[in-house]
Amino acid sequence: MIVSKAWVFVSGGSRGIGAGVVKALVDANYSVAFTYVASDDAARALEDALGNEDNWCRGYKCDMGNQESVDQLAAELQAVHGAPYAIINNVGITRDALMLHMSAQHWGEVIRNNLDSAYYATRAFTTGMIERGDGCIVNMSSVTGIKGNPGQANYAATKAALIGMTRSLAVELGRFNIRVNSVAPGIIATEMTASLTDQQVRKIASQVPLRRLGRVDEIAATVTFLLSRGSCYTTGQTFVVDGGLSA
Fold first, then answer.
1. What is the spatial distance between Cα 96 and Cα 76, in angstroms, rounded to a whole number?
2. Can 60 be counted among the known catalytic residues?
3. Which H, E and C letters describe the chain, residue by residue?
4. What is the CATH number of domain 7-241?
């Protein structure tokens, strides 16, 4: 095994907040392995834009809701690079509907992708981090897991669960010098909001005390901080970055 410099694993890193996190981490001098499901072009573009002589950036097609796929990818990466310094459990989907109209399939898809994926990745990588005696885990929650949102019972359930998972893992892994925190973004301007009209954006922003949507780089900066020495005595916490929406 050839152990490389500090590297970070980011699930769901080809677009949106995930891509912003990948970029910020490479800028912070980490090498990054990120996963994606369907965005081959976006993944290759991110690799080309961010890879350099000092840090590698590579995308891997992987269904994070499938334990066998996650275990196989984790084994391949650790055989070459050793255990990651950090795991960013970012992958997530929505299947919105009021509970009375929500199908069991859409409930299960969100649980599998948003919550099970975090379990699979954490299980797959933490043994090596424990053996090394340091590391970080950041779980990407959401303000929806704190304040709720109609039509998103499945999504909110997974994001609230990640906060509970964060607290429990922080207690379990602290003695190995592994810190576990979560980030709860509010309404962030991504590809999903790009299709909204100006009027719709203004209406949404009017609900936020700071009167604007959040930026991807603001979430990425929080994640980068949680991997830095500046947060070395911080674990078990949820950092809400929502412009005051949940206040």
1. 35
2. no
3. CCCCCCEEEECCCCCHHHHHHHHHHHHCCCEEEEEECCCHHHHHHHHHHHCCCCCCEEEEECCCCCHHHHHHHHHHHHHHHCCCCEEEECCCCCCCCCHHHCCHHHHHHHHHHHHHHHHHHHHHHHHHHHHHCCEEEEEECCCHHHHCCCCCHHHHHHHHHHHHHHHHHHHHHHHHCEEEEEEEECCECCCCCCCCCHHHHHHHHCCCCCCCCECHHHHHHHHHHHHCHHHCCCCCCEEEECCCCCC
4. 3.40.50.720
Using DSSP bridges, classify how beta strands 31-36 and 7-10 pair: parallel, antiparallel or unpaired.
parallel
The span from the CA of 13 to the CA of 21, in Å, is: 7
Q: Which of 30, 85, 120, 155 is catalytic?
A: 155
Rounded CA-CA distance 132/38 in Å is 33
Q: Which two tokens stand for residue 139?
A: 């779980």
Please list the rounded mean pLDDT of every run of 10 residues in the chain (247 residues): 72 96 96 94 94 90 98 98 98 95 97 98 98 97 94 97 98 98 96 83 93 97 97 98 94
